[in-house]
């Protein structure tokens, strides 16, 4: 198999973190990047998976859970009108 060299600039911390994940999964970082580039060429699209919720989402979830414990939760909604009425209340 012929190979080409690809030089990229990347934050050293990101590289170390990615290298650790690749190692933990049993892959080389080169193999993961190569697979990503093949997907890009084949699908002509980039996809990202967010596995960790943002701090804002975590806060919203925590707030909703507290509301539920306090009896302030809303729903379930069976139509848009009942949801809108709840939001305006």
Structural write-up:
The chain has one domain: Arc Repressor Mutant (Orthogonal Bundle). 60% of the residues lie in helices and 0% in strands. The protein contains 4 helices and no strands. It has helices spanning 12-25, 29-43, 55-69, 80-88. It is elongated and about 65 Å long.
In angstroms, what is the radius of gyration?
22 Å
By CATH, the architecture is named Orthogonal Bundle
Spatial gap, N to C terminus: 66 Å
CATH fold title: Arc Repressor Mutant
Strand content: under 5%
Uncertain parts: none
What does the main sheet amount to?
none
Count structural domains: 1
Can you describe this structure in just a few lines?
This protein has helices spanning 12-25, 29-43, 55-69, 80-88. The protein is 60% helix and 0% strand. It has a single domain (1-73), classed as Arc Repressor Mutant.
Write the layout of secondary structure elements.
Blueprint: H1 12-25, H2 29-43, H3 55-69, H4 80-88
Name its key features:
89 residues, 4 helices
